[in-house]
Amino acid sequence: MIFIDGRFKATNRGMIEAQLREITVAGRNFLFVPGPTNVPDRVLRAMSVASEDHRSPDFPALTRACLDGLKPVFKTITGYPILFPSSGTGCWEAALTNCLEPGATVLIARFGQFSHLWADMCTRLGFDVALLDTPWGEGAPVDQYLAALESDRQHRIKAVLVCQNETATGVTSDVAALRRAMNSVNHPALLMVDAVSALASIDFRMDEWGVDVCISGSQKGLMLPAGLGVTCISPKALEAAKRTSSRRCYFDYADMVAANASGYFPYTPSLQMMYALREALSMLAEEGLENVFRRHTHLAGGARAAVMQGWKLKLCAAAPKWYSDTVTAVMVPAGIDAAAVIARAYTRYNLSLGAGLSKVAGKLFRIGHLGDLNEIMLLGAIAGAEMAMLDTGISIEPGSGVAAAQSYWRKH
Ligand SMILES: *Cc1c(COP(=O)(O)O)cnc(C)c1O
User: Fold this and answer.
1) In the chain, which segments carry CATH 3.90.1150.10?
2) What pLDDT does 16 receive?
3) Beta-sheet pairing, 351-355 with 30-32
4) Is there a contact between 404 and 310 (Cβ–Cβ < 8 Å)?
5) What is the model's pLDDT at position 202?
6) Among 2, 145, 230, 272, whose Cα sits 20 to 30 Å from the Cα of 110?
7) Residue 338 pLDDT level (bands cut at 50, 70, 90)
8) What is the overall mean pLDDT for the chain?
9) Residue 201: which residues within 8 A CB-CB, separation 6 or more?
10) What sections of 49-163 are H helices per DSSP?
11) Gyration radius of the chain over CA positions
């Protein structure tokens, strides 16, 4: 490599580094982590706008487009969609600090890194955590939730928390069944659902399931950059928030709902993200939400065919009833480090796969298939994962995953 002058050297440094890392620099990075997901070009264009005055008389139209447009996505008539300038994690914290008294008892099952982190947050915020420890790979244990609620005759449990789609293990739980369990013992606790990797890709029904707080974020099914906490609260949650003595300010539900009523925010919202959200909501409406769910189910079927029929590998999800339509967690054979597969996929093929987190670190890699994608895009990820696995010494049949996915999709 010859350097003519400093400038040439500077612009070529990236190229040299890329060569060292064997990155294929041409073409796009294949982003197949389960969030952040691909941002559609339409959304990128929509958010490429100059800033505007967020107190102008025109601003409420944008606020309404976003908040009203979110209602069908949450499947709510009576709920209040809220946009916080945070990620999904901020909405976890908002749910707890708005609706519960300090030290209140919460019931939560832990079966993966995200449900673990939410439970951990509850502990760190001083709540009394009734923990249902569940094997990773299984879904929410509705029978154990029921047993805990049934024996809670004094109604000490003030909130029931569940992660609808455990992104770390590729497991989806039955939120409707949990609501039925709560109703069967007439338990008055609030139901709080983490739908960060489910909303706008797996069916979620705020009103029908009697969800009091739904927690999500912008960078998964909503196809936006990270940066918006997207949450929805029931009238019961809002009432609770107005009563509790717990302290919060920035994330106060009542302040937000009051300001939103006139189309404004208590503080400066991200205008560009709101334009992006408005566009993403239009895209979801054009495709039709039920078609969006069907597409995710269809894509996930192909991904699972690649893993099980093609590669003859196992999923982390322990039973079909828990298979996630947004993320597939693939167990690598014993003696292989899944981190090596992920590193190889990235440095050699420019493919980003999701890592195994904490308990399952090194044991699995994840293929995210949510948001703006189609069969051929996912075939690219399956092909890349296949090459990375072969390169790291996993004995799978070359082409087997791609062929299995192709045949699944051509049949269904
Ligand atoms: C991504 C994710 C989160 C964390 O959301 P952030 O936006 O990263 O704060 C929480 N729960 C689940 C299930 C997730 O997939």
Assistant:
1) 2-32+288-411
2) 57
3) parallel
4) yes
5) 98
6) 230
7) very high
8) 95
9) 220, 221, 292, 293, 296, 325, 326, 370, 371
10) 59-74, 88-99, 113-124, 142-150
11) 22
Question: 5 falls in which pLDDT band (50, 70, 90)?
Answer: very low
- Find the 222 Cα to ligand 1 centroid distance in Å: 13
Pocket test for ligand 1, best of 162, 196, 220 (most atoms within 8 A of CB): 196
Check whether 360 has a pLDDT greater than 90. yes
Residue 87 Cα to ligand 1 middle (Å): 8
Query: Is there a contact between 215 and 193 (Cβ–Cβ < 8 Å)?
Result: yes
Phi, psi angle pair for 318, to nearest 5°: -80, -20
Q: 218 near 225, Cβ under 8 Å? A: yes
Question: Which residues of the chain are in CATH 3.40.640.10 domains?
Answer: 43-286
Q: Is the CB of 33 under 6 A from ligand 1?
A: no
User: Is the pLDDT score of 37 beyond 80?
Assistant: yes
Residue 227 in contact with ligand 1 by CB distance below 6 A: no
* Cα(350)–Cα(89) distance, integer angstroms: 28
**What is the pTM (predicted TM-score) of this model?**
0.95
Report residue 380 as tokens: 């690219």
Say whether pLDDT at 174 is over 60: yes
Question: To test the ligand 1 pocket, which listed residue (96, 193, 197) has its Cβ within 8 A of the most ligand atoms?
Answer: 197
Q: What is the mean pLDDT of residues 14-31?
A: 70
> Using a 6 Å cutoff on CB, does residue 221 contact ligand 1?
no
Ligand 1 pocket, 354 CB below 6 A? no
Work out the pLDDT band at 4, boundaries 50, 70, 90.
Answer: very low
- Ligand 1 pocket test: which of 37, 87, 165, 199 has the largest number of ligand atoms within 8 Å of its C-beta? 87
Q: CA-CA distance, 183 to 201, in Å (whole number)?
A: 27
Mean pLDDT within 69-92: 98
CATH tag for 43-286 (out of 2.40.30.20, 3.40.640.10, 3.50.50.60, 2.60.260.20): 3.40.640.10
CATH class for domain 2-32+288-411?
A: alpha beta
The residue behind tokens 């991200």 is 270
